[in-house]
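Changelog note: in this version the structure field was regenerated for every chain. One regenerated record is shown below for reference.
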Amino acid sequence: MKRILAFIIMIFSVFSFSSCSDFTRQVTRQSFALDTVINITTDEKDQGKIGEAFSLCNEYEKVFSRTDSESELYLLNNGQGELTEDIENVLEFSIEMARLTNGAFDVTVAPLVDLWNVKERKAPPSGDEIEIAQSKVGYEAISISPLSFNGKSVDLGAVAKGYIADKIADFFKSNGVENAIIDLGGNVVLIGEYSVGIRSPFNPDEIFATITLKDKSAVTSGAYQRYFEYEGKRYHHIIDPRTGYPSDSGIASVTVISPSSMQADALSTSIFILGKDAISLCDKFPDTDALIIMENGDVITTENFEKKYQLKK
């Protein structure tokens, strides 16, 4: 079931936060890892744990980076190294998502991601280039037991940040941290209850809506985050492995809320690629909801989203 709301403004993926706890001073620290800006907030008494959380990010970068020649994933992509628990956990989940989405979510999409390279491109690649890159994509070739990538290049970028955010949250909770905001470049995990302001992309100073979240993760995928324009057309960074081109589903952005940031990470990408009807994917995961903003300004949510999360304009 889904509910359509007639909003005009679209959601921006940058969140603002205010604590719902009583007069507790909080401290925010910033770092750079996982190819993104990381912001972590805790109560003042727990700020010593933030440095340890940043260290965890650096450790996981040595696991999941596709470009670091010393990382575990890099070695596996080059037929070396061994499958560790972290890689196995994320890879198993990723293959499950690929099957669930009939290949719309595919961790072997690296050749297409590299080809489009929206950070540097000024014009789209040719059809022949896309066809060659697409021929190298296909999650069905991946085997975990026995381990074999069968010549495919695995990129876990669409899910690893969520996994890492979950691990940092587990670390905080095991060390008695009761209030925290873990923001890994838009992959947000909240420990405690917060009022989350979602900003408008048309005016970054304007809050589109606020929602109250407690002990949840929120992840947004959007066409406006990374892109280039050529001859009046925008080419964004979310590639549809089935076509070889940036997704053209009519969605402007999708925000997924879940107890698991890894699940929210994968679902936000999957729904963005598949289109609005894919919001039903949330039903397959416990306590998971989504809010989709279409290019025409319509907003689609999972059933009871507004009541469940106290959505306020």
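Spot check on this record: The helical segments are 48-64, 72-77, 85-100, 110-116, 127-134, 160-174, 261-274, 305-308. Residues 48-64 form the longest helix (17 residues).
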